Amino acid sequence: MPTIRRYRPTDRAAVAEICIRTGDAGGDASAKYRDPGLLPTIYALPYVEHEPELAFVLDDDGMAVGYVLGTADTSAFVSWFRRVWLPTVEVRYPPPPSSARTPDDELSAALHRPERMLVAQVADHPAHLHIDLLPGYQGAGHGRALVGEFLGALRGAGVAQMHLSMSRRNTGARAFYDRLGFREVAAPDVPGAAFLVRDTLAP
Ligand SMILES: CC(C)(COP(=O)(O)OP(=O)(O)OC[C@H]1O[C@@H](n2cnc3c(N)ncnc32)[C@H](O)[C@@H]1OP(=O)(O)O)[C@@H](O)C(=O)NCCC(=O)NCCS
Q1: Could you say which DSSP state residue 67 is in?
Q2: How far is the CA of 6 from the centre of ligand 1 (A)?
Q3: Domain boundaries, the chain
Q4: Counting atoms of ligand 1 from 1, which one is nearest the CA of 25?
Q5: CA nearest to 8, candidates 71, 59, 42
Q6: Which of 69, 106, 142, 181 is deepest in the core (most CB within 10 A)?
Q7: Is the CB of 168 under 6 A from ligand 1?
Q8: Which residue(s) pair with 162 in the sheet?
Q9: Nearest residue (CA) to ligand 1, atom 27
């Protein structure tokens, strides 16, 4: 029976792999990008580097098969991403050309513009998260339990409000968040994305 535990540095490669296997609106993104390593460089690894205390994994026999990770303070995370994270990764991932919009270019643009995470409509919900489980571990209650761990950690840190952004194509995840008490906030400037918020103190 898989169990939830805190993230450890030895989970890093498994976390990156899970991010790739679920990175195309919940489906496998490995064939979508020339270098799929860009996905975890944006959406998973900076979080475990910056706030490992907010990262939890689903462990099956010593192997991470799912995770929830995030930040308590999106604004502080964005500053750190620009100042510390980007310089460490931009040798491997230089800025994209201004034309030629391949899927890799789109991702690279996201990497090089961390300020995209500062969305006015959710600024009063400072924390945000990402959650992904390998396909064989979905639909068994682990996602609910992982979000519960994350919310508990936020409450322990005195953070009362959180948000997340997701692809509107990911209808399964949207049903999941609805079941967990998230509600949508309109943010029409970000096409294709839905922004959901939740009070960490709500049951
Ligand atoms: C989305 C995800 C994190 C949900 O975790 P999960 O373990 O599969 O979900 P759970 O089993 O904990 O489900 C919790 C509730 O959500 C509902 N739910 C979960 N997935 C659902 C789906 N695809 N359609 C409808 N309802 C769903 C469950 O029925 C359950 O409801 P209940 O507890 O009231 O009976 C997981 O499926 C996943 O990692 N998917 C691929 C990656 C992804 O899309 N990540 C989110 C990116 S925004």
Answers
A1: E
A2: 21
A3: 3-199
A4: 44
A5: 59
A6: 69
A7: no
A8: 127, 198
A9: 176
Q: How far is the CA of 27 from the centre of ligand 1 (A)?
A: 13
Nearest-CA residue for atom 4 of ligand 1: 143
Contact residues for 62 (Cβ-Cβ < 8 A; gap 6+) = none
| pLDDT, tens digit only, all 203 positions of the chain | 999 999 999 999 999 999 999 999 999 999 999 999 999 999 999 999 999 999 999 999 999 999 999 999 999 999 999 999 999 999 999 999 887 689 999 999 999 999 999 999 999 999 999 999 999 999 999 999 999 999 999 999 999 999 999 999 999 999 999 999 999 999 988 989 999 999 999 98
176, 178, 179, 184: residue to mutate for ligand 1 pocket, most atoms within 8 A of CB: 176
| Cα separation values, 186 from 122, 170, 180, Å | 9, 17, 19
Tell me the pTM: 0.97
Q: State in words which class domain 3-199 has.
A: alpha beta
